[in-house]
Amino acid sequence: FRRVRENKYNSTRMKMMQSVLFIAVFCWTFVFAFDTSVYSDSQNLMGENYTLYWKVVGDTIQIGLDVQTQGWIGFGIGEPTSGSMPGADVVIASMTSGVPNLSDSYTLAKATPIVDDCQDWTLISMNRTSQRTMVEMSRLLIVNNTQDRSIVPGPNRIIFSFGQTDSFSYHGVNRGATVISFYGPPPAELPTNLPSWTLLSKNFTIPARVTTYAFTSFVLPTQGGPYHMVAFEPIIDSDAVHHFILHYCPSNTTWFNSFLNRTNTGSASFDNGYCVGQVWGWAPGMGALVLPDNVGFKVGDHPDDFKYLTLEIHLNNPASRSDLGTISSGVKIYYTNQLRQYDAAVLALGDPFVLTPSIIPAGLDKWEIEYSCPEMATLNNMNQSITVFASNHHMHATGRQMWTSHWRNFTEISETNRVDFFDFNFQQSTPVNFTIQPGDRFNTHCVFDTTSRSADTNFGMGSSDEMCIEFLAYYPRMPKTPSTCGFAYTKEYNINVSIWDINPVTSPNPLVRDPVGGDTIVFGSGGGACQLSQTQNTQNTQNTETAQNSDGTSNPNVGDESHNGSNMMTYGIMTSLVMFLWM
Questions:
Q1: Which residues contact 535 (CB under 8 A, 6 or more apart)?
Q2: Confidence of residue 435 (pLDDT cuts 50, 70, 90)
Q3: What is the dihedral of CA 501, 503, 506, 512, to 10 degrees?
């Protein structure tokens, strides 16, 4: 009888112990997952596979990552004008034998990141469950060394990735990129409360050839106007869309009418001599464009208004497949009859007509070309100063680097824009803010890398050809809007000339070259002081404890005192319960 009673007691005790152990493991999993309520914002980056949390306190940002993996986690700040992996400031969180590690690194190519001289990220906590890994860390918002990128007010381009192993390895499809405003002004939102026009290609069948240009013309309604176009939203329904441009035409010419409300193939629009001006364009990586609150592209019946538009779509079919189907891509334009203060327009620099006769040799890691919009062109064609609010660099697959120097009174005053790590799939319209005065000069530079090619590369309209154009959106629109200032090549002059399509200037191009060294890439070069914020210094000196993974292995865990205290109290309670039931 006594033995039966002892067996029943032991069985009951074992069941109680199993229940408490289950509760302990359950509580451990969720107590040691970080407290998401302390974060002001969050965003799912890959559905539920990768969730980003953040909060900004003073000069510091704290980030929490909750990722469905048992391996390493990557997070990075991309180059502001590209946002791809090359040129990014990245941090990699991993565990080795249960010990967490942060590696502050940077990338110069699509390759293994290089460890920074300065380790600016501070680990707060890192924990792992049977399915997920969670890490919290912090660093200064603004940094002053060349291997890191500052997290600035407004939009920041970020990259993210994860792997399935503790040691860093290729991420495969587990990666992405996006734009996030961590603090300061949020990104401009599309004015969905406004009416819109949708301009699409008309169920155009993609031809079985490598390069196709398809055109569709539209006459915008002016009844009840004039109007201002204030936002542009791309509509892309095929990976074959290489890029597109929305051109304006001075009138309904024969060429314009040949594509009116229907889509057909044709030569590039500037070959026709009429629809050379640009209103807006899209290339891979770009999102919507929302104009400043005081600016719009004017639609009306005046000869200078944007009434006749042609959508030019460049299709890329490298395998010349015949089964790619049809496209109905284009743009949704938001407009208002409440006219804004300024009319907008676009100016193209570099080689706007893609007439460069030069050939880029194969197998070179750096080949540079320079174009000029000279002082005489702006002096002869501008009657006032203009303000530039957006810049868009455009090259093709071998493009590596691009910038334009801005000169006034024979002194370089700035660069209009610069991208040091160009990627065709990460093009964008970059917000800028500078003025152009009559007599200013611009020198546009493009650098190409043809190491992946066995044949020479031409400049031209083909997908495998190259281009070098910078588009500047500006206000106020000048009368008889000039749309191009840069390079041209004519047999008449037998020289490379500078052009401005209102009052042409025929001078060698570039007339004055920039000093050498403009292609120097500062990012990743090292130098600058290593620095920690006051918050990070406090964390490093006050908080060191041992936390645990859900499998019971230990790891250093740094956190705030309240978080540490609650974890330690929970740890003590659970340990006491287990010890009591074991006795």
A1: 57, 58, 59, 60, 138
A2: very high
A3: -90
DSSP state of 85: S
Residue 449 vs residues 408, 444, 457: alpha-carbon distances, Å:
31, 17, 10
Span 306-345, pLDDT tens digits: 999 999 999 999 999 999 999 999 999 999 999 999 999 9
Could you tell me where the DSSP H helices lie in 294-405? 375-381
468, pLDDT greater than 80: yes
**By three-state DSSP, how is residue 198 classified?**
strand
> What pLDDT, on the 0 to 100 scale, is given for residue 566?
40
With a cut of 70, say whether residue 26 has pLDDT above it: no
Nearest Cα neighbor of 424 from 395, 452, 445 is 395
Q: Name the token pair of 218.
A: 């539209």
Instruction: Kindly state the DSSP code that residue 364 receives in the 8-state scheme.
Output: -
- Tell me how far apart the alpha carbons of residues 274 and 255 are, in angstroms, rounded to a whole number: 8
Between strands 308-316 and 211-219, the pairing is antiparallel
Coil, strand or helix at 376? helix
Q: Which residues on adjacent β-strands are paired with residue 92?
A: 74, 103
Number of other CB atoms surrounding residue 183 within 10 Å: 17
Residue 377 has pLDDT above 90, yes or no: no
Q: How many residues are present in the chain? A: 583
In this structure, the number of other CB atoms found within 10 A of the CB of residue 440 comes to 22
Quick one: tokens of 461?
């309209």
Tell me the average pLDDT across 299-306: 90
Give SS3 for 106: strand
Radius of gyration, alpha carbons of the chain:
29
pLDDT for 514 beyond 70: yes
In this structure, what token pair is assigned to residue 469? 């154009």
pLDDT 10s digits, 208-250: 999 999 999 999 999 999 999 999 999 999 999 999 999 988 7
Q: What are phi and psi of 342, to 5 degrees?
A: -125, 145
Over residues 190-209, the pLDDT tens digits come to 999 999 999 999 889 999 99
- Separation of CA 127 from chain center: 31
Residue type, 399: G
The CA distance from 14 to 435, in Å, is 79
**What order do you get walking across the sheet with 114-115 strand by strand?**
114-115, 99-106, 89-96, 73-77, 155-162, 175-181
The helix or strand, by DSSP H or E, that contains position 485, with its residue range, turns out to be: strand 484-490
Q: b/e per residue, 275-288, with b = 16+ CB within 10 A?
A: bbbbbbbbbebbeb
- Higher pLDDT residue, 541 or 207? 207
For the record, the structure tokens of 251 come out as 């009138």
Other beta carbons within 10 Å of 561: 11
Q: What secondary structure does DSSP assign to 408-431, as a single string?
A: ETTEEEEEEEEESS--GGG---EE
Helix (H) or strand (E) holding 385: none
- Among 132-146, 251-265, 304-318, 486-500, the least confident range: 486-500
User: Can you say whether the dihedral through the CA atoms of 264, 266, 271, 277 is positive or negative?
Assistant: positive
Helix (H) or strand (E) holding 102: strand 99-106
Would you state the structure tokens that stand for residue 199, as one six-digit string?
A: 């301009």
* pLDDT above 70: residue 83: yes
